[in-house]
Amino acid sequence: MSTIEIISTILLNVIPVIVLVIPYFILRKKLIGKFYFRIMLGIMVFYLIYWVLPIIFQLNTTPIELQIQPSDQGNIAFGIGYIIAHFGSLIALFASYPLVTLPFIFFVAPFISLIFVWRRLRKEKKINESVLSSLTYEITKGPYQKVRTALEKGDWSREKEILKLLIVLFPISLYLLQVILKISGLESVSITTGETALGWFIEILFVYLATFIFSLELLFSSQIALKGRAFGESVRNQTYKSLYTVGIPISLLSVVLFVVEDIIEGSSSLPLFLYFFAYFIMASIIFVLFLKIFEPISLLIFIKIIDWWKNRVIRKKSLQTKNFYYGIVFGCLTFFIWFAINYIAFNPLYGIIFQNPDSIIQSSNFVPPSGVNLAQSLGFDVMIIFNFVALTLISLLLSAIALRYCLKYVRNILLGVITFIPTVVILSLLLLNFMVPLVNFAPETYWITGQSSYTSVFGFHFFTMRTASFTAGLEGVLYILAIPYVSTQYIFNIIIWTLIIYYYKKDFNAKNIKLDERHFEKIIFSSAPEFLTYEQYAEKKNRYLLVRKEQLESSLITGEREEVKKIITSLEESKLLEDLIPADEKEKERFYFTLKYLYNNNIIDILKPEFSYIFDRVEKQGLYIIYDDGRGVFDYSFVQEVIQDPGLVAGMVSAITSFIKETTRSQDLLKTIDHGDITIILEYGKRIFGALFIRGNQTAELRNKLRIFVERFEEKYKSVLEDWSGALVHFKEDHLLVEDIFKEA
């Protein structure tokens, strides 16, 4: 290679990456910029593993020539078109992860989390209504609100921990897979010389591992608790600790066995192991990059399952099935729209773009039956883009949007899903031989990689990694293990993306309602899709929440009549609709139309209940924020008289936590101190921890509030607490923050 060829090759291969990075510098300070950063980082990692890493394994292989017609030599437009299509196919392949692969993880994980909850409940004498009713959880924000908060916070600690665990577990898993392959007679061959069952199954292996690990994360993020004691975090931490304790030595042993096997058998499986290890890391990085984007929907599914389990008798009685036919109608309509799109657009367009598709597919083989020309290589990249857009993106969006509108009319998520999905599945199976199905249960699977190549389209040798493929056939044991993923991923994709569309614009709001002197009910509301009918409004027990829009322009109120102004003023804090409805029938009707007017003018919003739970009321005594060296930072008394000296409390709690940690040699932090009728709840930040004194048993509700207070307090005084001098003057006004977070209703 000449100097100009080396420089030109580097520039032409790097330019698409530079183009990808430029928008980030424009958007980086905005919320969309933080989201774009995750996508950009994922694409770059994907680029390195799929297009750059294979170069290392092909250094001793002569690059193949992507042949061109003599007339095309120096055709810059043709060359640029190839580079664009090549990078476009890479983005399409990358996009299949968040669109197709990851939804399986985020849909199945909540059901595995439920198994952990069930196992915890079995420790009680009997799983009955009383035990189930004592299950509580923490979800007060909608999916969009949670994603926004997570992105703005920019904390990557959870992602790092999950990534580390996945990397630890990979060598064990791969070694076990190779043993299975040997037993079943399906030993994989070199990634650069033929078919590989192991290669494609690595993706499925990753999905199964990530699903299990994320199910533990859901227990943590949901703050699931029984009788006021959160157990999700401890289950997660104990499982992680066990996996690290066992996984690290066994993983190291697995790597040693790979090396020994290579030496004894004189094989070359170690480079293959390294390649798959890099691929697994890539998949893991993409997973953690999108963790906080998908987690709120998974959390919603998990809580809905728990809520249904707790109230299954009531739910079954109240389930309205009269609108079930909407699911069937929308399912049929969706399928026939898909049929029309295929017949009118996709099939003719496919025939025009790919006049000889079989030749293009054959030329894409890593070891093609004959030479490869640049036009065929470009054609395969365009085919990847076309198949992604037409057969994945459009079919998925069509199904998700149709099911979302189906749910609007069915008015029950479970009923809508169990009528819509079977309809499209049955129609897909019936017409499988006549068209591309809307739900594909047997997708053709290929292992896509890059092959060292060059072309002289620019008038000099331009070296690149052309897109090449292997048929990834799964047989025997691997085929059986792959069935749960392959046969359900398209269905789960539709459900997940439907829920994302359905809940994306919904605002969530939580309200505590006093039931009696000992109990509160926490109801989590979400935005109603449309204004209530008069029948819903006039129900004896209508549990809807009225809230005033946060950013309400004064000009919208100025010209209103006094009655309207009075309602708007009364909604400075959210109110239950049942508490505002007048008793007189005429006034009740008048009030309904006034509310409808306010709703239509975007002045108020109406929220419907999503789920609820009951928790015990406790008497709060005092709140203390303590520095990590034992000094008191801030204190607040919830009762008239001061019952504890702040300095003594700080020293006492700090001494107890240090003593228990030293004597037990446990890495777990002390969370609760019980002393007769007084309980001390502890929550920890980075430089401080909070101690809340209460009279009675702790509740998950109070622990969550304490956690939120510690997080906000530490975030507010981050710079002060970094190297705190001991001055208390900074924290004098934080009683307002206490009153805001710890208010009960």
Task: Summarize the SSE layout with pairings.
Layout lengths: L2 H25 L3 H27 L6 E4 L8 H46 L7 H5 L1 E2 L6 H11 L3 H27 L13 H25 L3 E2 L2 E2 L1 H34 L3 H21 L1 H20 L1 H7 L6 H29 L3 H7 L8 E2 H37 L2 H18 L15 E10 L6 E10 L4 H28 L4 E7 L4 E9 L6 H4 L7 E4 L6 H4 L3 H9 L4 E2 L8 H16 L3 E13 L2 E9 L4 E6 L8 H19 L7 E4 L2 E7 L3 E8 L4 H17 L1 H5 L12 H7 L4
Parallel strand pairs: 1-5, 1-6
Antiparallel strand pairs: 2-3, 3-4, 6-7, 8-9, 9-12, 10-11, 10-12, 13-14, 13-17, 15-16, 16-17
Helix pairs in contact: 1-2, 2-9, 3-7, 3-10, 3-14, 3-16, 5-10, 6-7, 6-8, 6-9, 7-8, 7-9, 12-14, 12-15, 13-14, 14-15, 14-16
Protein architecture, described:
With 745 residues, the protein is an alpha+beta fold. The chain has three domains: 3-503, no CATH class; 508-616, no CATH class; 619-741, Beta-Lactamase, CATH 3.30.450.70. The protein contains 24 helices and 17 strands. The strands form four sheets. Strands 8-9-12-10-11 form a five-stranded antiparallel sheet. The chain has a five-stranded antiparallel sheet with strand order 14-13-17-16-15. Strands 5-1-6-7 form a four-stranded mixed sheet. It is globular, with a radius of gyration of 30 Å.
